[in-house]
Amino acid sequence: MTRKALSAPGKLFAAFALGCMTFMPLTAHADAAFQKWIRDFYPVAAREGISADTYRRAFAGIKDPDPDVLQKAAYQPEFKSEVWDYLDSRVNPYTVKIGREMLARHGRTLASLERYFGVDKHILLAIWSMESNYGAVLVKDDKLHYVPQALATLGYADAKRAKYARTQLIAALKILQNGDITPKEMTGSWAGAMGHTQFIPTSYLLYAVDADGNGHKDIWNSIPDALATSANLLSKNGWESGKTWGYEARVPRGGARYAGKTLTLAEWQRLGFVRPNGKAFARPGERAQLKLLAGEDGPGFLMTSNFFTIKKYNAADTYALAVGLLADEIAGYGGMVQSWPRPDGTLDIKEKFELQTRMKALGYYNGEIDGNFGSGSKAAIAAIQQRLGMQSDGEPSKPLLDVLRKH
To answer: Residue 176: exposed, middle, or buried by beta-carbon count in 10 A (0-12, 13-18, 19+)?
Structure first.
């Protein structure tokens, strides 16, 4: 096709491509295919109203894919961890303690949001904990990714998530173009979830709120904006004010056959399902679905509509359960009564905290007492096991805790 034969749109897109070539030159040490993908994506962005200046600012200095994004994409703990391990790392004395501190610190904001949106303030705190450890991950560079680069990486190299990534990248560029945040500040997870409460760009565009009234919807730096944005999402997706997310329940003999069924709480009670703390169901006419997250040997949960609203945030049952349980503990309602069917020799959450405390007292561990056993905790365990003549596998266990209790 000759230059004269180009239509008006064709001339426009040719100019777009030329502009992108200008601000993204190939270099000897850059990933040429990735840079080509970014150049080729600009016409798609332009059709969605993204200016050349916004695109240039978004990708200035970006030469290669994010090396950590694809590795993280392959691992999602909601779907790979045992439910008790997942909950232990998220619903524990540490997260409850910090949650109560945040409730005291931001009580006025939380009370205002609860009145305006009708969403339980303790649920908002639990989501904040789950998403960013009350903002702590936002100051850890190794946990953060530049969102346009992360999404471009997925669009370029992850066929499974390419459609998602392209959609989110367009939304991220719109956020930059709106001026709510600078490119430097637009950090997030490997999948593009952003800020204190980890909103993906399309959800940000739908639900972001300027709660502090400064003219910007800023979920990265404004705690009121971040919490209000979460409350807005839950409210618009059907949160029922003044109602709980669900109930822990004792499953009667043979009751596992009802898993997945939805009945009123009064009907569940007639079938023998009762709360293990002895309390009555607050609204017997309310409908609830039976969930057995650890199978028929584990505790039961009767999930009401708010549980499924929490899942609009994250579709994993374990995520929504963790939010509900943590919210209840922050509020002082108490934790679970029944035990999970853990394998013999493994530790419950209280024992995990005790093991870390004893390791620290012996000088083998100097990290946070949080019940999580990452590389630091496991290295300390391996050192102790070696000293004691035990198998040095670095894994926390009751036999190890029993030995340390004697020291």
So the answer is: buried
- pTM of the predicted structure, to 2 decimals: 0.88
- What contacts 87, CB < 8 A, 6 or more positions away? 318, 321, 322, 325, 340, 349
What is the residue whose two structure tokens read 């056993």?
373
CB atoms within 10 A of CB 284: 12
| Dist CA 57 CA 146 (whole Å) | 13
Q: Annotate 18-82 with three-state secondary structure.
A: HHHHHHCCCCCCCCHHHHHHHHHHHHHHHHCCCCHHHHHHHHCCCCCCCCCHHHHHCCCHHHHCC
User: pLDDT value at position 23?
Assistant: 45
| Residue 207 dihedral angles phi and psi, to the nearest 5° | -120, -10
Tens digit of pLDDT for each residue in 130-171? Answer: 999 999 999 887 779 999 999 999 999 999 999 999 999 999
Mean of the pLDDT values across residues 185-214?
A: 97
SS3 label, residue 271: coil
For 223-274, the pLDDT digits (tens) are 999 999 999 999 999 999 999 999 999 999 999 999 999 999 999 999 999 9
Mean pLDDT of 67-82: 76
329 Cβ neighbours under 8 A, 6+ residues apart: 91, 96, 99, 335
